[in-house]
Amino acid sequence: MPARTAQTVHSPQKLQRELADLQLVMRARNGDDKALDELIRRYSGFVRLKASSYFLAGGDAEDLIQEGLIGLYKAVRDFSPELSSFRSFAELCVTRQIITAIKTATRRSTPMSRSATRPRARSPTATAASATRCPGPRWTTPRFA
Question: How far apart are CA 67 and CA 120, in angstroms?
Answer without folding.
Answer: 25
